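Chain X:
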Amino acid sequence: MCSSPLSAVSRPMACRRTDDAAAAAAGLAAGGVWAFPTETFYGLGCRIMDAAAVQRVYQLKHRPVQRPLPVLAGSMDQLAAVVRLDEAPALLRERFWPGSLTILLPVLPQCRAALPPQVCGPDGKMAVRLTPHPAAARLACLAGMPLTCSSANLSGQPAARTADELAPALLQHLDAAHDGILVCGPLPQGGLPSTIVEPLGQRRLRLLRSGAVAPQQLAAAGFTLEDAPDRP
């Protein structure tokens, strides 16, 4: 089942663009949804504890609601405030963060009630990464908490590497008052999205999505990979 699309009578309006991360962070604090560059592609996100904004991300992307949103942070302290970092092997964090490796980790019990279910899955885990992109990291730090960070595209459509590649069908529903596009820092590299893994203990990882960090890199670092079970 997909989330309900935005009203067909929504009026297109000029989408705000800025190179000012502080202005973008202010928009996020006011409940906005922003497109911003990451190390892989342009992401579309909001503050992780803003339930209404999280729902708008799903609506804007036409994303199936059963697919939780990945999360991006600007610092290790931001992640330590919401997930159990000790569940990820220290070597994994040291070798691949900051970087394009997303790790599925348990949410801290005291944070679960504040997080929308689209961010904290039914198993109480969140898919998180520490971004190496300076603009994305600064935006998350200025926003005061990690950000949801799904690719800034309509679900199933190609991801955007530049602001000019963002789909008009997505942009026309952004609210000029609080939403916008952050255009600063290096361009995303493109290629593959972040790799997603789940720690299983004793240097075992379940590979949930192949991506920018190749399985060979994880194996070379001493980790054993297991494929995710097939879903019905």
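Chain Y:
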Amino acid sequence: MSDYTLNVLIEGYDEQKAQKVIDQHMEIDRDWRDVYESRQNSTILQAELMGLEEKVYQVSPEKKMLCGIVEIGQVRGLIPLDFMGVDNREGAKKIIGEKIAFVVIGLDKASNFFVGSRKEAIRQMAERALRRIDQGDKILAVVRQVYNSNVIVDIGGIQSSIPASEASYAWVDSMHDLFKVGDHIEVKVTSIDKQKQEVQLSVKALQNNPWDRANEYFKENGEYVAKVSGIAEFGTYVTLRDGISGLGPHLRHEVVKKGDKVLVRVLKIKQKQQQMNIKILKVF
């Protein structure tokens, strides 16, 4: 077994414990093979960004820099801030705990560490993404940041902002209601500028437009159960059906809140404008 001569009798020898030691060394060798392959062929690796440390990663002349810490199995890696693909320390802190991509650009097996570049991995991924996607394509995106009015998604080295207006046909009070960091979502490429590496995306473009049948679902002066989906200064939004929202004035003598179940009267359906005027009659 490996370099160990197990046919020699050892007092207290335990074959299971010995095998664990051997397996551990074999695992470390496999980890280093992945690191070497990335260094030689610029293959992209992924690992969780575990934290940030001030490290000396250049000996002559000595250079100390803030580095991200990653691990490939039992081999530790450093991602210097210059190669992190972020603007500053705060940018690096935002991605701690996330799985990041990088390419190995240097290594020191004797010290059991390597140096990686997330910036190079992002460059490679962006080139590949631009080669394989075109306007009209349906692709997968990963949510990186969520704000009230938009989300930032990654489609492979390229980040794009999706506004609330492209997330749903219904009124979206906050994108936090629909998405969270790490979500994998399907989107449609609505426009692309390959020279500028800019891609516009839409979630709702992949959905059937419910407003096409709004007059079948609802009638003017009809009364329907709805759910309060947002409170604005100028009125209250309610959702009557997935993708269909209505706007009405605030109640004078009663306070409603987001999520409340209400009874509404449909006053006007503007199918082309995808708008509906309603009046709240009752809060359940």
